[in-house]
């Protein structure tokens, strides 16, 4: 029995993503399970991996299979596996390798998923909602009534921050373009059109002394820092400012803002951590399992529901990447590896 997977033969645009047929299924090692993959998310990070500019995959070279996360069903277990059973739904943050119908992974890295959960909604928890959850609770340590600013609030992580922020009773402001302002408002935030309004002035009018936290995935770190209250936290994450191209100007801008923030830290009580999910998972593996399990529980209870812009079959993977690069997506794009998943 064969299977299909997406292969990146060379770095480049969406057109370099090709479907390849394998003639035999992979066999799990003693502590591995074979997973029939149902869904994987598509994010800016995947586009950076495809172009060869993502810092987390610098040591890898094509040919390779992209795909940062997955949800699927255990299809076969290795001889020494003790924690998982055939038919059990599982999730994993793979960084690469998820755009495939079958894959073998070590049992210790997999987090059980309630079988009744929709796979596209479940996979949305792994990268986008985990990022939002950990930035809120592990980094900013928000509490009820806090005032927060979310840049790019209509995207995958932005909408996750808004939904989780509502649960915590936060006062939220979200920047977006005109076409996403209604979405931001529907998720409980005061929308701010960053193209037509003075964001800093508007935030000061709404918050008074500044916000308790800013979650900035756009890259205007200096501007975000200036909107903080005296003891506020700026959580920096993501790579959206550069689109999918890390040019010299972008790198110089990021280095410059980093130096500026570092100098300000010498004379301030504000904090400016940078969040990156994969390195944090390596350092705090227990957090990853605990937090993802909590998110699955919230999803199961109906307390959160990811905004899914489109479910796209694996054979249209190039179109999925193009959608992300076009910047117009409201919420999450999910690649359906198994279309009935």
Largest sheet: 7 strands, mixed
Average of pLDDT: 92
Order of helices and strands: EEEHEEEEHEHEHEHEHEHEHHEHE
Task: Tell me the β content.
Answer: 25-35%
Structural class: alpha/beta
Count of β-strands:
15
**What gap, in angstroms, lies between the N and C termini?**
20 Å
Helix content: 25-40%
What's the tally of helices? 10
What's the structural domain tally?
2
Sum up the overall morphology in one term. globular
Regions with little confidence, pLDDT below 50 for 5+ residues: 241-253
Radius of gyration: 20 Å
Corresponding CATH architecture of the largest domain: Alpha-Beta Complex
Question: What oligomeric arrangement do these chains adopt?
Answer: single chain
The CATH homologous superfamily of the largest domain is termed Medium-chain alcohol dehydrogenases, catalytic domain
CATH topology of the largest domain: Quinone Oxidoreductase, Chain A, domain 1
Specify the CATH class of the largest domain. Answer: Alpha Beta
Q: How would you describe this structure in keywords?
A:
10 helices, alpha/beta, single chain, Rossmann fold, six-stranded parallel β-sheet, 341 residues, 2 domains, Quinone Oxidoreductase, Chain A, domain 1, seven-stranded mixed β-sheet, globular, 33% helix
């Amino acid at each position: 029995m064969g299977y299909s997977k997406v292969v990146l033969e060379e770095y480049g645009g969406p057109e370099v993503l090709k479907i390849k047929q394998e003639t035999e299924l992979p066999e799990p090692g003693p502590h591995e399970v074979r997973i029939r993959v149902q869904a994987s998310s598509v994010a800016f990070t995947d586009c950076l991996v495809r172009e060869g500019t993502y810092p987390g995959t610098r040591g890898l070279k094509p040919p390779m299979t992209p795909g940062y996360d997955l949800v699927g069903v255990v299809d076969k277990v290795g001889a020494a596996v003790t924690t998982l059973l055939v038919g059990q739904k599982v999730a994993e943050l793979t960084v690469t390798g998820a755009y495939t119908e079958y894959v073998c992974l070590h049992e210790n890295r997999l987090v059980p998923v309630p079988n009744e959960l929709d796979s596209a909604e479940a996979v949305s928890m792994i990268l986008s909602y985990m990022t939002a959850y950990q930035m809120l609770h592990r980094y900013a340590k928000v509490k009820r009534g806090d005032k927060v600013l979310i840049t790019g609030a209509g995207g995958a992580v932005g909408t996750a921050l808004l939904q989780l922020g509502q649960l915590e009773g936060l006062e939220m402001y979200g920047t977006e373009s005109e076409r996403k302002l209604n979405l931001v408002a529907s998720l409980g935030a005061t929308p701010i059109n960053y193209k037509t309004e003075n964001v800093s002035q508007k935030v000061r009018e709404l918050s008074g002394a500044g916000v308790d936290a800013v979650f900035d995935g756009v890259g205007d770190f200096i501007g975000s820092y200036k909107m903080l209250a005296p003891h506020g936290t700026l959580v920096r994450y993501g790579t959206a400012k550069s689109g999918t191209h890390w040019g010299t100007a972008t790198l110089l801008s990021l280095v410059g803002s980093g130096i500026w923030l570092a100098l300000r830290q010498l004379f301030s009580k504000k904090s400016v951590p940078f969040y990156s999910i994969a390195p944090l998972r390596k350092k705090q593996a227990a957090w990853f399992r605990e937090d993802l399990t909590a998110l699955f529980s919230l999803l199961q209870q109906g307390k959160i529901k990811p905004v899914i812009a489109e479910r796209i079959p694996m054979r249209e993977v190039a179109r999925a990447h193009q959608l992300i690069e076009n910047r117009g997506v409201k919420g999450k794009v999910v690649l359906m590896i198994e279309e009935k998943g």
